[in-house]
Amino acid sequence: MSLPRAICTWRGCAVERPEVRMTSQTPLPHSPRPGPPTMSTVVELNVGGEFYTTTLGTLRKFPGSKLAEMFSSSAKACTDAEGRFFIDRPGTYFRPILDYLRIGQVPTQHIPEVYREAQFYEIRPLVKLLEDMPEIFGEQVSRKQFLLQVPGYSESLELMVRLARAEAITARKSSVLVCLVETEEQDAYYSEVLHFLQDKEKSVVKFGPWKAALDSSDLLYCLAMDIKAQGYKAVYDLFLVYATKTTRIYFNIYSFTFTWW
C-alpha cells in the first residue's frame, strides 16, 4: 500500500516526502517516567530550621539506620514550603552527624547533644565511637550500668518527686525520706523502722536491695544529680532514727529537702 505524498518546497525546488497519518495503531510518543532517585541525587534538607545540602548516598551510608530509612524509596517524605525534606530535630547538631557521614570526622564539641542525635538517627558506628569518649562513657555508660543494678531506680525517683510535690501545696519546702537498703539482710533489718516512719505519716521511698557491690554514697550522688537535672532544688542530710523498742540507731536513711520558692 503506497502512502500519499505531500510536496514541500525548499529554495524553489520541489521535494516530495511521505505524509504520515496518525492512526489508532500508531503508538503515541511519550516521555519516559522519572526513575527512582539515584545515590548521587542532591537533596536539600531543613533540619529544625537549619538548611543543609547533601546527597542520598551520604544519607544512606549506613543501611538499617533510621536516617537511611527516612530517605528510602518507601518512606513518606515530609517537606517544607520550599520543597526541602523536613526533619523535626535540633538542626545545630545535625552538622556533626553530616560531617561524620561525609568524611568520617568524629565530633569534638557538644558531645552529649551529638550523642543524643546519633542515637535518634540510629547511626550505630558513631554511637559506639562517642560512647568511648570520657564525656559519654562516664555519664551514659558507667553511671547507667551502675543504676541498672538498682531495681526500680527510675520508678522510685519518680515517686520521690511526686511525694515532694504533694507536700508542697502550702509550704515553701517539703521533705521526703529515702532509705538505702544494700542487701537482703538489711531489708529485713529496716522493715521495722520503715513501718514506724510510715505510721508517723512520713513519706519514705526505699531503694534496693541490690546484688552488686554498690556504694550508697554513689547512689545518693546519682539521686541528687537526677533531681537537679529535672530542674528541682534539693539537698539531703542523714536522718537518724532511734528505735522505740531497742537501742539501735538506723543509718542509711536520708532526708531530701526540696525548696519550691
Automatic annotation (TrEMBL):
A Pfam family assignment: KCTD_C
One annotated GO molecular function: identical protein binding
Gene3D superfamilies: Potassium Channel Kv1.1, Chain A
Gene Ontology biological process terms, A to Z: protein homooligomerization
InterPro entries named in the record: BTB/POZ_dom, KCTD7/14_C, SKP1/BTB/POZ_sf, T1-type_BTB
CDD domains (UniProt xref): BTB_POZ_KCTD14
Ranges for domain BTB: 41-138
Domain of life: Eukaryota
Membrane-spanning parts: none
Name the record gives this protein: Potassium channel tetramerization domain containing 14
Organism listed in the record: Cebus imitator (Panamanian white-faced capuchin)
Higher taxonomy: Eukaryota, Metazoa, Chordata, Craniata, Vertebrata
